[in-house]
Amino acid sequence: MKALICRELGSLDGLTVGEIAEPVPAAGQVLVEVTAAVVNYVDALMVLGRYQITPPTPFTPGIDIAGTIVATGPDRERFAVGDRVHGLAPFGGFAQRVAADETALRPTPDDLPSDLAATTGTTYWTAIDALTSVAKLQPGEDLVILGAAGAVGSAAIGIGKALGARVIACASTAEKLTFCTALGADEVIDYSSGSLKDAIKRLCPRGAGVVLDLVGGPATEAALRATGHGGRFIVTGFASGQIPKVPLNLVLLKGSSIAGYEILDFETHFPLDADTNRTRLESLLAEGTVKPPITARYGLDQAPQALARAAGRDKCGITLLDLSDGRQS
Q1: Mind listing the pLDDT tens digit for each residue in 241-289?
Q2: Spatial contact of 219 and 213, defined as CB atoms under 8 Å apart
Q3: Cβ–Cβ contacts within 10 Å for residue 279, how many?
Q4: β pairing state of 208-213 and 2-5
Q5: Is the distance from CB of 147 to CB of 214 less than 8 angstroms?
Q6: Per-residue buried b or exposed e for 140-158, using 16+ beta carbons within 10 Å of the residue's own CB
Q7: What are residue 170's DSSP bridge partners?
Q8: E-strand spans in the chain?
Q9: In the chain, what are the domain boundaries?
Q10: Are 106 and 86 in contact (CB under 8 A)?
Q11: First and final CA of the chain: distance in angstroms?
Q12: Best CA proximity match to 171, nearest among 205, 161, 84, 182
């Protein structure tokens, strides 16, 4: 079967599309014929050897998938051949077929197209978990998103609006801010110029209620200083590549809190919350309340270009691999 192949970690330049052996589902796994897969920054980090999971080479990247089950392994309990599913593979999703654990997949509702189902994974699952279960975002609260133009950030704009928040999107270029406004952000801040803390405080005189930090680096402390009393600061990643250190007296003085979110850890410790959030998300997507900003679509043969785009700092929204080839989507 055809797949994207990474033969050596450390660079995106050596990625090629070629033939590999079709995987055989092990116990508790199913074989999914991939219809759509989202190309994330995390996938690029894995190829670059800078992610916490280091797969043996050669390997095929790709985590967020949607498709149809074509075979099952031993001890299969949840799904059958012909079922439409979406969810996570540890890697291997940028291929015509991938073996995935049943427990990492969800049934795709009949009214949810596969391209939208594929966007849930690490992007929208992160946004809805972090904002509902971790931040406990309330209607009318001010939500500040650092890195709002990326895949998870743009998902957070849609989820934040669906939850009734006033969304303040922070990004680094005029193009990204225009993109965030088009997605429904109420206010935007360019954190590449001027004081981020002062800009947030101008828009939120009582301080931000919730800050979702996808960036890290110097923006973290500035945004933490702009939270209001009892504000919640949620850490989900470090797209800047810098893990910041912050003075904890800021938390003490503001009565605020800092919490972290990691998708697999959350699902392990809060499975009921995770299931509730995913069901709600699927409904929001199917009814069109939340509309994923798929800004680029590529075929499997263009997967190296898609991964290069996802790794670029100028990327806005979601990059999708479309493998449907006329199949049901």
Answers
A1: 778 888 888 888 888 999 999 998 999 999 999 999 999 999 999 999 9
A2: yes
A3: 12
A4: unpaired
A5: yes
A6: ebbbbbbbbbbbbbbbbbb
A7: 146, 189
A8: 2-5, 16-19, 29-39, 64-72, 84-88, 97-101, 105-107, 142-146, 166-171, 187-190, 208-213, 227-235, 257-260, 294-298, 318-322
A9: 2-119+293-322, 123-265
A10: yes
A11: 20
A12: 182
Q: How many residues does the chain have?
A: 329
Give the whole-angstrom CA distance, residue 16 versus residue 7. Answer: 9
Residue 248: both structure tokens together: 């904890």
Are the folds of 2-119+293-322 and 123-265 the same?
no
CATH 3.40.50.720 given to domain 123-265? yes
Q: Which residue has the tokens 């509902």?
A: 132
Kindly give, in sequence order, each residue whose CB lies less than 8 Å from that of residue 205, ignoring residues fewer than 6 positions away: none
Contact 228, 250 (CB under 8 A): no
Comparing CA positions, the residue from 119, 139, 164 lying closest to residue 278 is 119
Other beta carbons less than 10 A from residue 207's beta carbon: 19
- Give the distance between the most distant pair of CA atoms in the chain: 59
CATH numeric code, 2-119+293-322: 3.90.180.10
41: nearest Cα among 58, 65, 57, 61:
61
> Using 50, 70 and 90 to split pLDDT, how confident is the model at 237?
confident
Whole-angstrom Cα distance, residue 79 to residue 72? 8
What CA–CA distances, in Å, run from 135 to 40, 80, 132, 297?
Answer: 24, 37, 6, 32
Residues 6+ apart with CB under 8 A from 274: 125, 129, 266, 267
Q: Which pTM was predicted?
A: 0.90
Q: Quick one: pLDDT band at residue 328, thresholds 50, 70, 90?
A: very low
Q: 307: phi > 0 → left, psi -120 to 50 → alpha, else beta; which?
A: alpha
